[in-house]
């Protein structure tokens, strides 16, 4: 989306009754929720504000320092880097010793609820703009995009908290602020209905509006919602699997990207595999700030980064599990595109690390050592790597995810033979790997678990996958994460919410 973020004090306005003993004076030119929503320009401005809360992306620092510690540090496929150990609130997340007072968890919660507030205001207020001030098609699209965003923010919350406060209306008085959590089924119902409404969005947008939600994004997330719910409600598993299959079958017009790493390096923004992507830009025109220092957070110290996150031995073992059976007698291509590690590939002139051999970066007094570090989400060139800021987009939903979700749905429905070609398509295009072996439902189930593990590191689906499959405890034990218990499957409601919400016990 073309990120023009407007400063809207009215977005979070609360109407608080005043005492009759005081004189009320209202500025005639003050914007309020009652007089702001005048025409299509205001509607687009409000929608832009709702988009602005996606993944904390408008905050240069919090963008990396909230999303990835909260979502990724608990996964078995990553380790904390050396510098990350200096931040107790991050260490708590990795060690599963956090409480409801953890600042990063609280920031994550409030970011998504701010997005919900903005989305609800768009849904309600744009519907009230006079017909002569906004075209009916424009109105419908803007409102449906707000439904998509409301579903997305609720989805992020329900994936991380066992019970959440459902916010399905714009709050206009203080009494409405306090509300109890709702059953998961109620939250899922709203999420699904909102994604269904968003399914009438266009298949694509003009160049000036790339990044806005589309029909493909709505159906992809609708399929993901049904798939997740199928495991949570076993008595309705078959019903939800069928609905997931129906939704995912509506996702069309996309194809896998042959150059895997280009999707995460800034080289190939909004490419043919991208379904929903977080947008960034190096432009600073008119005070714009849509660039980040995420590359510094992600890069190891050897590459000039801050050394906050590293691939774990569990992840490296998974990449090497099948051996060097890929084309060219190599490991799965996704290993080389995701991780830098000591291997002939990076030292024989065909896979240089920013123009140097791996051993030239990773050595002490000329003695090489092997320290796997992430390549994913680092810029394509050394010049960009050492800049203070970059503008690498973040794919939030890719076509590879749709294919692997479809494979999982089909396999769980007993249509195993139809699932195998989808898995092999991802293996071939992204991994340069031969077809999978095995044909049974359990063979395919294990292969899907493997493919998702090595396809999506740092895209933060791993935790939700493991919980969906009932394998959190097993995975944490294998990774040596001994502090984990199933109480950590979800985060606790933040203390900041409890302290301000008298409906919560």
Please count the beta strands (DSSP E, at least 2 residues each).
Answer: 8
For the largest sheet, list the strands in their spatial order: 1-3
Helix percentage: 40-55%
Biggest β-sheet strands, sense, barrel: 2 strands, antiparallel
Radius of gyration: 23 Å
CATH hierarchy: architecture of the domain at 9-15 and 37-75 and 82-198 and 490-500: Alpha Horseshoe
Query: What's the total helix number?
Result: 19
Residue fraction in strands: under 5%
Structural class by sheet pairing and helices = mainly alpha
Distance between the termini: 40 Å
**Named CATH topology of the domain at 9-15 and 37-75 and 82-198 and 490-500:** Serine Threonine Protein Phosphatase 5, Tetratricopeptide repeat
Shape descriptor: globular
**Low-confidence sequence ranges:** 1-25
Provide the residue-averaged pLDDT: 92
Descriptive account of the structure:
There is one protein chain. The protein has 505 residues and is mainly alpha-helical. Among the domains are: 9-15 and 37-75 and 82-198 and 490-500, Alpha Horseshoe (Serine Threonine Protein Phosphatase 5, Tetratricopeptide repeat), CATH 1.25.40.890; 295-390, no CATH class. The protein has helices at residues 40-51, 62-72, 88-95, 103-126, 136-160, 184-198, 215-232, 237-248, 294-298, 313-320, 333-338, 358-361, 382-385, 399-412, 416-431, 441-455, 462-469, 472-478, 495-500; strands at 78-80, 274-278, 309-311, 339-340, 363-364, 367-368, 373-374, 394-398. The strands form four sheets. It has a two-stranded antiparallel ribbon. Strands 2-8 form a two-stranded antiparallel sheet. The chain is globular, with a radius of gyration of 23 Å. The two termini are 40 Å apart. Mean pLDDT is 92; it is low at 1-25.
């Amino acid at each position: 989306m073309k990120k023009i973020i407007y400063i809207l004090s009215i977005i979070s306005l609360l109407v608080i009754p005043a005492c009759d003993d005081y004189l009320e004076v209202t500025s005639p030119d003050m914007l309020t929720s009652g007089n702001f929503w005048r025409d299509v320009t205001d509607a687009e401005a409000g929608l832009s504000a709702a988009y602005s809360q996606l993944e904390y992306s408008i905050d240069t620092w919090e963008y990396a320092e909230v999303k990835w510690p909260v979502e990724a540090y608990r996964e078995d496929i990553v380790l904390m880097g050396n510098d990350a150990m200096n931040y107790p609130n991050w260490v708590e997340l990795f060690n599963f010793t956090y409480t409801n007072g953890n600042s990063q968890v609280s920031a994550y919660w409030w970011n998504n609820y701010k997005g919900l507030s903005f989305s609800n205001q768009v849904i309600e207020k744009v519907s009230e703009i006079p017909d002569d001030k906004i075209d009916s098609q424009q109105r419908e699209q803007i409102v449906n995009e707000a439904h998509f965003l409301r579903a997305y923010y609720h989805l992020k919350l329900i994936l991380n908290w066992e019970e959440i406060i459902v916010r399905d209306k714009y709050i206009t008085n203080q009494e409405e602020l306090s509300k109890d959590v709702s059953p998961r089924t109620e939250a899922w119902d709203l999420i699904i209905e909102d994604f269904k409404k968003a399914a009438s969005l266009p298949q694509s947008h003009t160049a000036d509006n790339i990044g806005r939600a589309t029909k493909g994004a709505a159906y992809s997330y609708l399929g993901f919602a049904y798939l997740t719910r199928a495991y949570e409600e076993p008595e309705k598993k078959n019903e939800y699997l069928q609905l997931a299959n129906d939704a995912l079958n509506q996702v069309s017009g996309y194809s896998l990207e042959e150059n895997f790493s280009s999707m995460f390096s800034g080289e190939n923004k909004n490419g043919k595999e991208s379904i929903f992507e977080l947008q960034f830009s190096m432009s600073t025109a008119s005070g714009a700030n849509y660039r980040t220092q995420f590359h510094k957070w992600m890069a190891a110290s050897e590459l000039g980064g801050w050394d906050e996150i590293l691939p774990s031995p569990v992840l490296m073992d998974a990449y090497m599990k099948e051996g060097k059976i890929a084309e060219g007698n190599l490991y799965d291509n996704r290993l080389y595109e995701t991780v830098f590690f000591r291997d002939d590939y990076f030292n024989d002139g065909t896979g240089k690390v920013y123009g140097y051999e791996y051993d030239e970066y990773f050595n002490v007094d000329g003695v090489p050592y092997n320290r796997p570090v992430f390549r994913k989400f680092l810029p394509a060139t050394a010049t960009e790597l050492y800049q203070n800021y970059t503008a690498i987009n973040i794919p939030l939903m890719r076509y590879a995810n749709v294919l692997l979700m479809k494979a999982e749905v089909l396999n769980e429905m007993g249509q195993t033979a139809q699932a195998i070609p989808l898995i092999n398509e991802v293996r071939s295009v992204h991994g340069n790997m031969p077809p999978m072996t095995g044909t049974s439902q359990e063979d395919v189930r294990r292969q899907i678990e493997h493919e998702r593990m090595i396809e999506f590191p740092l895209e933060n689906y791993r935790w939700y996958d493991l919980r969906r499959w009932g394998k959190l405890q097993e995975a944490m034990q294998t990774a040596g994460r001994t502090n984990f218990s199933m109480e950590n499957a979800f985060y606790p409601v933040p203390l900041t919410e409890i302290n301000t919400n008298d409906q919560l016990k």
